[in-house]
Specification:
The complex is a heterodimer of chains A (113) and B (111). Chain A has no helices and 11 strands. Chain A is mainly β and 113 residues long. The radius of gyration of chain A is 13 Å and the shape is globular. The chains are: A mainly beta (113), B mainly beta (111).
């Protein structure tokens, strides 16, 4: 049974560069979520898709962040003009139509120098 | 918004000891999940428990939704139980959306 996968697992970039992360949810899960986790804190919600529709965005999602789920399957999260404060673990989760239980991927650890 | 508080923040145990982790939440919830975050950052699902009691091996959990708390019990702890335990809730009337996480309990089990 394939779980949620994320790519890349680690990304180091220089301030001002753009980065893009990919998330592949569990097959047939119609809901997909992005969270961000900084050191010593619990994950914080960024955005949520049901199929291809982006239904909710957190105030944490500034205009430098954009997320897509074009065909209701995989999703991408892009950060433009990265800042040092963007350094964090970016987590993706998915849940099935029949339940609200969320399953998380291994995360992408972003370091902005 | 809803507040999620976990206690204790840190817990140090000898192998074989039992422990209880607590999660209090400030408002009604649709669902509650417990996770274990391993040293590589992976969140592992332990329980999906909006109410009642569940058991899985040495772990069990109880949620009393009317009193807005949940407990995670770990019996006969092992060094592999070390890591951060998170409680996360889905607020009522926001079904299928964001989980709100507590700050976690960091458990260290020594042999």
């Amino acid at each position: 049974d394939t779980g949620v996968s994320q790519d890349p697992r680690h990304k180091i970039t220089k301030r001002g560069q753009n980065v893009t992360f990919r998330c592949d949810p569990i097959s047939e899960h119609n809901r997909l979520y992005w969270y961000r986790q900084t050191l010593g804190q619990g994950p914080e919600f960024l955005t949520y898709f049901q199929n291809e529709a982006q239904l909710e965005k957190s105030r944490l999602l500034s205009d430098r962040f954009s997320a897509e789920r074009p065909k209701g399957s995989f999703s991408t999260l892009e950060i433009q003009r990265t800042e040092q404060g963007d350094s964090a673990m970016y987590l993706c989760a998915s849940s099935p139509r029949t339940s609200g239980e969320q399953f998380f991927g291994p995360g992408t650890r972003l370091t902005v120098l | 918004g809803i507040q999620v508080e976990q206690s204790p923040p840190d817990l140090i145990l000898q192998e074989g000891a039992n422990s209880t982790l607590r999660c209090n939440f400030s408002d009604s919830v649709n669902n509650l999940q417990w996770f274990h975050q391993n040293p590589w950052g992976q969140l592992i699902n332990l329980f999906y428990i909006p109410s009642g009691t569940k058991q899985n091996g040495r772990l069990s959990a109880t949620t009393v939704a009317t009193e807005r708390y949940s407990l995670l019990y770990i019996s006969s702890s092992q060094t592999t139980d070390s890591g951060v335990y998170f409680c996360a809730v889905e607020p009522l009337n926001q079904a299928g959306t964001a989980l709100i996480f507590g700050k976690g309990t960091t458990l260290s089990v020594s042999s």
